[in-house]
Amino acid sequence: MQTSAAPNPISIERSIELLERTPSVLRSLLQDLPAHWTTATEGPGTWSPYDVVGHLVHAERVAWIARAELILSDREDKTFPPLDRFAQFEESKGKTMHQLLDDFDAHRSANLNALRQLPSGEALQRTGVHPQFGNVTLAQLLATWTVHDLDHINQIVRVLAKQYGEAVGPWKANLRILR
């Protein structure tokens, strides 16, 4: 068993290994699940799995590749437009979970095709300007995109688990996801 490893170098190929799996993970977990699961939250001001998928669709549509292309462009001003982290509340209205999953899958597929066309190597050290964090590299953007997926998959699973938070009784002490 491996106890520690050297940090993984950031690369387009390594990120794609995870990014290409997210649509099928979400579809397997959420498609055809009744609304009492997909609209549940952790309480006021928190997001349901439906909200999270809507957020992922929005970010996929407007953020990742657009920001990568801006970093790689010859433009003088490489400041990213702000991302509306709550746009899904309007954009997802009237859509089913199935439609959101289809939208996410389509945008992710197109973005992975675009990502495969981007230069790598030294290009990963080129920078853009995040409105909150300042200068960021393409490598950091790529790593963030990958971890963003994992963070939201974790969020969805946590929300689902918490629906049975009290029902597990004393086992709650052994279930980290419920703490």
TrEMBL record:
<feature type="domain" description="DinB-like">
    <location>
        <begin position="19"/>
        <end position="156"/>
    </location>
</feature>
<protein>
    <submittedName>
        <fullName>DinB family protein</fullName>
    </submittedName>
</protein>
<dbReference type="InterPro" id="IPR024775">
    <property type="entry name" value="DinB-like"/>
</dbReference>
<dbReference type="InterPro" id="IPR034660">
    <property type="entry name" value="DinB/YfiT-like"/>
</dbReference>
<dbReference type="Pfam" id="PF12867">
    <property type="entry name" value="DinB_2"/>
</dbReference>
